[in-house]
Design brief:
Helices cover 30% and strands 27% of the residues. By secondary structure, the chain is an alpha/beta fold. The chain starts with a helix and ends in a 7-residue tail after the last helix.
Length: 263
Amino acid sequence: MTDRATIAFDEAGTTVDAFHRGRFVLVQPARSGHRSGIDAMLLAACVPDGFSGSVVDLGAGAGAAGLAVLSRCPDARATLVENDALMAHCARLSLARPENRHLAPRGCVVEADVTLRGAARRGASLGDDAFDFAILNPPFNDARDRRTPDARKAAAHVMGGTMFEDWMRTVTAIVRPGGGFALIARPESLGVILPAIGRRFGGLRLRGVHPHQGAAATRLLVTGVKGSRARLTLLPPHVLHEKGRDAFLPEADAVNNGLSSLA
């Protein structure tokens, strides 16, 4: 972490936010950059219960999704990959929090660009066939839909031209044969996501996330298995709220708080 970045971090300030009903906490910028919430919990829930391998969290931000996997799966290990120096620093601070001492030995932070290739990627601790599962929270908003004066937040939220293709190339390289991946995106990105996956992963499972029954999906969860030839499956929707109410439905509440997976 450079002195300049540290100064920016100090000026921004932070909050310490509890997840999984206090079973872990996250250090996040108070005013600049991405702040994690339900998207990260949904992504983490795509990792099966009882998972005991190595998971790589690509675009980890402050580490919410990766830490959520560690919180629910006590035998898992997580590598949190983040390109933004400020957010990577938050992830390190999160691991160092005393509330997370039970998770810290199983987690590490890698400050690197997800789209690195070849020797540069391997030199950044993203080796070939190195992980059992990858979770991806890429910048999935269209620039027309997401306008913010915060440059750091814009970089975390707004997709580039070949982003899904670039990220899936890295996932294919670093996940072992038979390993899995999960990503979260907007449903309208499906036409770009499927070509980016191509034949790299099979057994694809698609699940829409809906604010309430009868509403259009606002998020799409996609999972797959490297090298599988199984066909695509469209899963039942994951509904967050009863119509007209703010409280989460019991299944959604359990997923949000690491009590069950979506796998």
